Amino acid sequence: METKLLTEFYHLDEFRTLAGYKKHGGYETLKKALKMQPQQITDEVKASGLRGRGGAGFPTGMKWGFLPKNNEPRYLLCNADEGEPGTFKDRLMMERAPHQLIEGMIISGYAIGSKKGYIYIRGEYFYPISVVQEALKEAYAAGLLGKNIMGSGLDFDLDVYSGAGAYICGEETGMISSLEGLKGQPKLKPPFPAVQGYLRKPTIVNNVETLAAVVPIIKDGAAAYKKFGTEKSAGTKLFSLSGNVVRPGNYEVNLAYPLKDLIYGLGGGMRPGRKLKAVIPGGSSAPVLTAEEAERATMDYECLAGMGSMLGSGAVIVIDDSQCMVDMLGVLTHFYHHESCGQCTPCREGTGWLNKVVHSILEGRGRLQDIELLLKVADNMKGRTICALSDAAALPVLSFVTKFRDEFEFYVREGRSKVRGVRHAEMHH
Amino acid sequence: MPKCTINGKEVEVKDGTTIIEAMYGKDGEWPEGKVAHYCWHPGLSVAGVCRLCMVEIEGNPRLQIACNTMVTEGMKINNTSEKVKDAAKWGLDFHLINHPLDCPICDQAGECGLQDQYMEFGKYNPEMAEKKVKKHKVVDLGPTVVLDTERCILCSRCVRFTDEVSKTNELGIFNRGDRSEIGTFDGVPLDNKYSLNTVDICPVGALTSKDFRFRQRVWYLKDAETVCNGCSTGCNVKVYFNREGFFRVKPAYNPDVNGYWMCDEGRDLYKFVNRENRWLKAKKRTYNGIEEMMPGAAAKDASFAVKSLGDSVALVLTGQYSVEEYESIVSTFANDLKSKRIYHWISNPEKANDFDGLLLRGDKNPNTKGLQQVLQKHGVNTNWADLLSAISSGAIQTVVVAGPENQAVYADMKDKIRDLSKAKNLIWLQTGRNHDLEALTGNVWLIPMKSYVEKDGTFVNHAGLAQKFKKTTTVVSEALTLTEASDLLAGKQLVIKPETNVFVESEKPADRVTVEHRKKNEFVFRRGTL
Amino acid sequence: MSVVQKNTSEASKWYLPGIMTGMGITFRHLVSNLVDNLTGKKKMITLNYPEEKHEYSPRFKGNHVLTVKKDGSLRCTACMLCATNCPAECITIVASEHEDPTVEKYPVKYEIDILRCVFCGFCEEACPVDAVRMGPEWQTPGLNGANFNYGIEHLAYRPQLKGGIATHVDDEERHKAGI
C-alpha cells in the first residue's frame, strides 16, 4: 500500500500550476511557517528524524545545525542533478509538483537564514527545467518569492541552474564548483560546505525530496511524520522501481516497507516464467542483494546497512534470472569510468582499470587472476579519495564478484556467459 | 602551538600547520621521516589529488592525507605502519598503470618522482595487463616548454603555478577521467617570464625544457649552489655541470630573496660560462700584430702602462664582480697607484628601478649596491662625462676596464668600446669573447677573467642583502680573478694561498699511503645505487 | 715438509736411459698423431685456422652490434644506460631530438673505444630495448693509426652485418599492444 504523503495529488495535471497547487492546500504551510521562528522550524525538522533523501541519508536537521551562527550570507542549494543510475523520483516531483519544492525551499531558506537559493537541475532534464522555470515565474508574480514574501519581511530568491552532463556534479562540492563556474570537480572536505561552500560562504545542499518533505513536516508536525517508518528511519520515501518487474515506476511508501511487497505487490512481481535473482536496492552505487537477502529486507537505512548494502537514493533495480551479472557489471563499470572527474588518482585510474578488466572478461579474454584482481583494485579504491565516486564505483564490483562469483568464473573459463550462453558481443547486436 | 607526536617523536608546531608541513622541516629535510607526495608543494596551494601522502592518525580508522589535515593538540601521527605503506604502494600503482614506458627517452630519469617512490616502497610485480591510455606526446606548449601528456600524472602543480605564482592562467586540465590532459588554450601559448619553473616542479617528465632536452643525463651532472648574476634580485640557484661544462640552472630555496622560483632569463646565464664562449688566452695587440700569452703574463706585461702613472690611469667598473674583488682593485688603485679616477659603468640607468612584481628587476647587474658601497667607502665620487673628456684631452693615458660577464644585457657595449678605445692604452678584463674588442687596433690588452661560478665571493642585492657564494668548479683555469689582475697590474707579486687540503681525504687507514682520489670516475660513481 | 726419494736404484742415476725414455714418449705421440691425421681419426685439438674455425656459443661476447628497426634506422634511444654501466667507461653517446615524435630520441654519436672495452657484456645486459648486443665476431684488426673508436657506421652497418641486424624489441608492436 502506498503512503501518499507527498504524492497525494500528483495524478492531477493542475497540481503543477500555482492555482491548482493552492487549491489543494498549497502555500498554507508557508503561511504557518512564517509565523514560527527559524530555530523552531529547524528543531521541528530535527525532531522529525528526516534524513537526506538523495543518497547519503544524513540527518537534515543536524546538517542545518552545522551552520555558523553569525550574519554571513548563506545559500540553500537544491540538488536536482539526479545522476544516480536507476533514480527518477526527483524528475517526477519536479514535473508534477514544482511548487511543492519551491514551498519547501522557501521554508528551509527561512529556517537557515538564507536569502538566495539555487535549484541545480541536470542538463538532460529539459522538460523538468522548463516546468520549474514556469513555476518560479508564477511564484514571483504572486509575491511568493522575491522581496517581502507574503508581507512577512522575508526576502528569498530562487534560480534554476542547468547542469551539462556530469554525474560528478551531483556530489555536493562538485555541484558547488559547477555553480561557481569552475570545472565540476569536488573540493577537499574539510572545510565542509556548511562552513565554507558556495563562494566560500556557508551553504546547505539538500535533495529535492528532502526539501519537499519539509512541507508536510511543518504542516502536520514532527510527531505525525514520525508515525511513518521506524525510529531511526522516519517518514515516507519515493522509490524508483525499475528493471525486470511488471509495473516499474515511482512509488511512495513509508520507510521500513518490506522490499518483497514493493517488488511483488506494488511492482507487480516478475514477468511470467522468471525468478528473482538479485536486487540493487539504492541506486547503482549500492551493493547488490541476492534474491534470498531481498526477501528478508525492509527498506530502511539500518536494515540495508546491516546487510552490507545501503538505502541510497531509493532506486530499486530488479534483476531476474535472464540477466547475466557479468554483463550488468560491465554496464556499471563503463558508467563510472566515463563519469569520473579525474582529479584524484585512485578513482581516475581505478575506474578505468576496473572497466578494462571487466570488458576483457566480457570479450572472452579473461584470466583466472582477473577475478581476484577486481577485488583487490576495488578494495584499494575505497576510502582513499576526495569524494565518494570511487567508493560508488568499487562497491558494485565487490558485491557482484563476491555474491555471483560462479558466473564470473564460468565466463573466464568458458569465454561466454553462464546465463546467456553467448559472448557479450553476441548478446547485444 | 599544538603539540603532536609524529612517529613516536613529540613535535611542537605553529597553529594552522598541516601534517605534511610539520614533517617537512625548515628546508625539506623531513626530520621525522619522509612522506611520499606528488601534488603538494610548499610554495603552492593544497590540491590533495595524488593521495600518496597518507598517514595514520590514532583514533581514526581511515587513513588521512597529510597535506590537508591540520595538526591538533595531542594528535598521534604514524606513517611507518604496514597499512600506510600498503596504501602508498597502491597509490603509486594507480599512478603507474597508465604511465608510458618512456624511461629511456625521458629527461627526468634519475630525478623522477615515480622512479624514486618505486624504489622506496614499490618493487612489486605489476598486475595491469590491459591496454594503456594513449594521449598526445611531444606537444609544443610554447617557446620554452614541451609537454608529454601521457607521462603527466595530473598532479596539477603546473596549473596551480600559472594560477597563483605567475598569475598568467595559461595552463588548464582538459577532458575528465583518465582522458584528462594538461593543455593551453587556443592561441595562448605558455609564454611568461617564469614558465620554466613549471618544468622544475613537474615531478615526472611531462614538462621538459627545450633548452636542456636530451643534452645530458642527470646522473652525470654535479650540482652546486650559487647566486644568480642576472639582475639585482640575486636569486639563489643551483647550477648543474660536469667536465664538459654547465648544463642548466635551477632555483634553490631562499625565503628572503626568491622563495622557490627563479625567472627564465636567469636560466640562460650558464651559457656564457662555458668554454666555447670564453677567452682562453690573453691577447696583446701592438703595432707588431696580435700576441697571445697566458693571462697572468699579459697582466704583468700591461703593468708598465699602469703603475707609476698616477692620475692618468682610469678604472672602469661594471656591477658584475664580487665585493671582495672590488675592495681589492679599488684599494689598489686608490692606495698603490694613487689614482682617484674610478668610474662606474651603468648601462641602463633609466630602467634600473623596474620591478615586475615577482622577481625580475631592471638593473641587470648582481652587485651594483656592493660596488657603490665600496666606492663610497673609498670616497670615490666621479661621473662618466669626466672620463670621456679626460680621454679625449689626453689626461688619461690608460684605461683599465672590468667588462661585464653577461654581455647580452649591456646594449651600449659597442658605444662604450668605441669611446674607451680612444685612450692610448686599453686593458680590458672580461670573461667572454667579444668581436668588437678583438677587432680593435692600438695598444690593447684583452685578459680573460674567471666567471662568477669559478670564484668565492659576495653579491649585495638591491635590498642590501649580502649573499656569499662559493666556487663551484673551474672552467678556464688560467683566467684571473679581478683581485689577482689588480695585484699583477700594480706590479705586485701574486700571493697564492696554499690549499688547506691538497690531497683529498680518503677512508684508507693511516698506515696506508694517501694518494689523491681518482677524480676521473667521480661524476659517474657518485650516482648511488642503480 | 718431507722429501722422499722415489727411485733410489743405481740404474736411475744414469743419464742416457732417462733421456731415451722421454724422447720415446714424444716420438710415440708424434707417430700416433701423424697416423691418426692421415687415417682421418682426429685426436689433436689444434684447429687448422683459418680453414677450420671454432664454433662459439650464441652467447659469445664478441664485437658489438647495434641493432636496427624494421625500416633500417638505429634502435638505440640514447638512454645512456650502457654508458653508465660500462666498467671501462668506453661508450660515448650524444643524444638528439628526432623529427618523428614517435621516435623522439636517438643518438647522433655512439662511439665505443674498442681498445678500452673489456668485453664484459654489461652494456648488453643494461640495454632496455635490445639495441646493443655482443655479436659473434671477435676479430678487430687494424694497422697503426687505425681508428679504434667504433662509431655508428661501423657498429650497426658494417658489411659483415649485411645491412643491419633486426632487433627483438619493436616499438610499433608494443604500442599496438597498448603498453
Would you kindly provide a written description of the structure presented here, covering whatever features stand out?
The complex is a heterotrimer of chains A (429), B (530) and C (179). Chain A has 19 helices and twelve strands. Chain A is an alpha/beta fold and 429 residues long. Chain A has three domains: 13-226, Rossmann fold, CATH 3.40.50.11540; 236-320, Roll (Ubiquitin-like (UB roll)), CATH 3.10.20.600; 325-427, de novo design (two linked rop proteins). In chain A, the strands form three sheets. Chain A has a five-stranded mixed β-sheet with strand order 3-4-2-1-5. In chain A, strands 7-6-12-9-10 form a five-stranded mixed β-sheet. In chain A, helix 14 runs antiparallel to helix 15 (345-362) and helix 15 (345-362) runs antiparallel to helix 16 (369-381). The mean pLDDT of chain A is 92. Chain B folds into three domains: 3-95, Ubiquitin-like (UB roll), CATH 3.10.20; 131-274, Alpha-Beta Plaits; 275-489, Rossmann fold, CATH 3.40.50.740. Chain B contains 14 helices and 22 strands. Chain B has helices at residues 19-24, 82-96, 113-121, 157-164, 197-201, 264-267, 295-302, 323-336, 368-377, 384-393, 413-420, 435-438, 482-489, 522-525, and strands at 3-6, 9-12, 54-57, 64-65, 76-78, 139-140, 145-147, 171-174, 181-184, 207-209, 222-227, 236-242, 245-251, 282-286, 289-293, 313-317, 342-344, 398-402, 425-430, 443-448, 457-460, 466-469. Chain B has a seven-stranded mixed β-sheet, covered by helices on one side. In chain B, strand 1 and strand 2 form a beta hairpin. In chain B, helix 7 (295-302) packs across helix 13 and helix 8 packs parallel to helix 13 (482-489). Chain B is elongated, with a radius of gyration of 28 Å. Chain C is of the alpha+beta class and 179 residues long. The mean pLDDT of chain C is 87. Chains in contact: A-B, B-C. The interface between B and C is medium-sized, with 21 and 22 residues.
